[in-house]
Amino acid sequence: MNERTLGLGLIGLGLAGGVMAAAARTHPGIRLAAAAEPDPELRQRFEQAEGAPAHADIDGVLARADVDAVYVATPHQLHRAHAVAAAEAGKHVIVEKPMALSVADCDAMIEAAAANGVVLIVGHTHGFDPAVTMIRDLVASGAYGPLGMIAMWNYTDFLYRPRRPEELDSARGGGILYNQIPHQIDIARTIADRPVRSVRATAAVLDPARPTEGACAALVEFAGQGTANLVYSGYDHFDSDELHGWIAEGGSPKKRAHGAARRRLDGLTPAEERRARTSDFGYGARSPLPPPHQPHFGELVVTCAGADLRCGPDGVIAYTDDGVEVLPVPGRPWWPGRGDVLQELVDAVVHGRAAFHDGEFGRETVRTCLAIAESARDRREVFLSAPEVARHVPVR
Ligand SMILES: NC(=O)c1ccc[n+]([C@@H]2O[C@H](COP(=O)([O-])OP(=O)(O)OC[C@H]3O[C@@H](n4cnc5c(N)ncnc54)[C@H](O)[C@@H]3O)[C@@H](O)[C@H]2O)c1
Fold first, then answer.
1. Residues of CATH 3.40.50.720 domain(s) within the chain?
2. Which residues have CB under 8 Å from 352's CB, separation 6+?
3. Of 79, 82, 96, which is best to mutate to test ligand 1, by the most ligand atoms within 8 angstroms of its C-beta?
4. Span(s) in the chain for CATH 3.30.360.10
5. Cβ(61) – ligand 1 distance below 6 Å
6. pLDDT tens, position by position, 257-285
7. 6-126+334-358 sits in which CATH class?
8. pLDDT band (50, 70, 90) for residue 390
9. Residue nearest to atom 35 of ligand 1 (CA)
10. Exposed, middle or buried by CB within 10 Å (0-12, 13-18, 19+), for 248?
11. Smallest Cα–Cα separation from 353: which of 119, 115, 9?
């Protein structure tokens, strides 16, 4: 007998909604039921390609009986309102990172989900990447001894992709601190599986024409054991995928293109930049095919007493006293990474298994982001007490 499939409604058909649509299409437990999107061009593209209805606002999706869950992929500042509305309509929720822009908003979302008996998952982040969860399991197994430190390095063109105005305004959640650093925090927290004790960070605004944080270096210390060193720059100079065999973040081959994102923006008005965002990144602009390699988020090296474990394009590379071994990442019958988000939803809703990346997990990542922003601003170490994270035990 076939297992129950969940009807999924996509809220927002921009970059995130477009990629999740492709992942949903290939997931055996998900049925793409509907979408909500104010842009008529994106709605038309979705309806033509998916044969499913696209509504102009979220209410149309929430009123549908064939929608069991929604994926909220609207701009950060709308996450709280959309997640709460969905929960109150009795729909399970996946909400994109950052979960919200304040801890109070995260709390409201957690409360709405609990009050209405629905599942709340925060994703996608690269903490769901199969190679990351494989490293988590290897560390947890103790096979390589205790965790010492986690190092991450990601250099991208993030700041020069076409942007909405609020994405270049730190006061409204713009820049890398709320958009890109959550990936690194989730990866580190997934592997360390401990509460964050403190952070010390610096952040830089290096282009007055894009006046928001585009570079960040943070030292995250975990309670009891382990640190993570997070380095990120989005200034479109060095591209760290050069160190990854020119495999892009999503797992597809890419070509060297230093400075191309800056050149694409040259001379565009803000209105033209907004349109370029839809044409370059909106629903339907990206390949609908699953990537041939593993997703990743820059370089990741995890140091244990007995080995360094590095994320490679197709597996985890273990550097031990005995040599170097590539451990292949177990295959998935779905889109690696984003399909794992959908599987976490299916596991929670259909099989009753507690979600790992639940609202409380997402809220702790937001708290860590806010602490990084505070540490960078005040030039001091910021301490977090996060007892609630301690209850997260990885599924092994
Ligand atoms: N996990 C990832 O890898 C990943 C990648 C990209 C974006 N994101 C996250 O997804 C969210 C959206 O980012 P994006 O890059 O897709 O932005 P985007 O601007 O490309 O897309 C957002 C879409 O939401 C639509 N929208 C705006 N108001 C709406 C409303 N009231 N109802 C329904 N739709 C509405 C917009 O018209 C737009 O098409 C952000 O929070 C971002 O952090 C995550």
1. 6-126+334-358
2. none
3. 96
4. 127-330+365-391
5. no
6. 999 999 999 999 989 999 999 999 999 99
7. alpha beta
8. very low
9. 12
10. middle
11. 119
Cα of 152 to ligand 1 centre, how many Å?
25
**For the chain, percent of residues with pLDDT exceeding 70:** 96
Cβ(74) – ligand 1 distance below 6 Å: yes
Q: Which two tokens stand for residue 167?
A: 């994405």
The residues facing 10 across adjacent strands are 35, 71
- 27 preceded by cis ω (within 30°)? no
Q: Give residue-wise pLDDT tens across range 48-86.
A: 999 999 999 999 999 999 999 999 999 999 999 999 999
Q: What is the pLDDT of residue 289?
A: 86
- Please tell me the distance between residue 282's alpha carbon and the centre of ligand 1 in angstroms: 9
Nearest CA to ligand 1 atom 40: 75
DSSP string, 169-217: -GGGT-SHHHHTHHHHHHHHHHHH-S-EEEEEEEEE---TTS-S--EEE
Query: What atom in ligand 1 is closest to the CA of residue 17?
Result: 16
CA of 196 to the centre of ligand 1 (A): 28
Give the closest residue (by CA) to ligand 1 atom 19.
14
Output b/e per residue, 263-286; b: 16+ Cβ within 10 A. ebbeeeeeeebeebbbeebbbbbb
Structure tokens at 45: 């593209």
The stretch 2-21 carries a mean pLDDT of: 93
Q: Which atom, in ligand 1's list, is nearest to the CA of 16? A: 16
**Atom from ligand 1 closest to the CA of residue 13:** 39
Cα 292 from Cα 24, distance rounded (Å): 17
Give the atom of ligand 1 at the shortest distance from the alpha carbon of 282. Answer: 20
Tell me: pLDDT of 387 over 50. no
Q: Is any ligand 1 atom within 6 A of the Cβ of residue 58?
A: yes
CATH 3.40.50.970 for domain 127-330+365-391 = no
Taking the centre of ligand 1 as the mean of its atom positions, its distance from the CA of residue 75, in whole angstroms, is 5
In whole angstroms, give the CA distance from residue 71 to residue 69.
7
